[in-house]
Amino acid sequence: MANTISAKRRIRLTQKETAYNRYWRTTMRTYVKKAKKAIEAGDRQAAQEAVLKAQGILDKVAVKGVIHKNEAARRKSRLMKLFNEKFSDTASKAE
Predict the structure, then answer these.
(1) Pick from 56, 19, 16: which is nearest to 35 by CA?
(2) What is each CA distance from 1 to 4, 13, 34, 70, 81, in whole angstroms?
(3) DSSP notation for 2-70
(4) What's 35's domain CATH number?
(5) In the chain, how many domains are there?
(6) φ, ψ for residue 3 (rounded to 5)?
(7) Between vectors from CA 60 to CA 58 and to CA 62, what angle results, nearest 5°?
(8) Is 91 a residue whose pLDDT tops 90?
(9) What is the mean pLDDT of the chain?
């Protein structure tokens, strides 16, 4: 257990920051999961909207410092790759 006042203050601050980061991290994961489910469902319009929302959340979380900007870029890239793999075939078959 911390003995000094500053150490006790840091413990309180760390708990507050951890709760803040946990909220944004779970929100981010939720939006990414929703986007993946929409992609798997096959509805292009719904998937596109979900991917755009997920990208916005990823950018916001990166700006807030919860995740690194390169991690956000990597996650967005992987999400777009899934989207394009699923719907580029559909678009070419329809033509």
Answers:
(1) 56
(2) 10, 15, 41, 36, 48
(3) --SHHHHHHHHHHHHHHHHHHHHHHHHHHHHHHHHHHHHHT-HHHHHHHHHHHHHHHHHHHHHTSS-HH
(4) 1.20.58.110
(5) 1
(6) -105, -35
(7) 70
(8) no
(9) 93
The amino acid at residue 45 is: Q
pLDDT at 2: 85
- What length does the chain have? 95
Domain containing 49 equals 5-94
Give 25-63 pLDDT, tens digit per residue: 999 999 999 999 999 999 999 999 999 999 999 999 999
Two tokens, residue 88: 């580029």
Q: What is the rounded average pLDDT of the residues 64-80?
A: 97
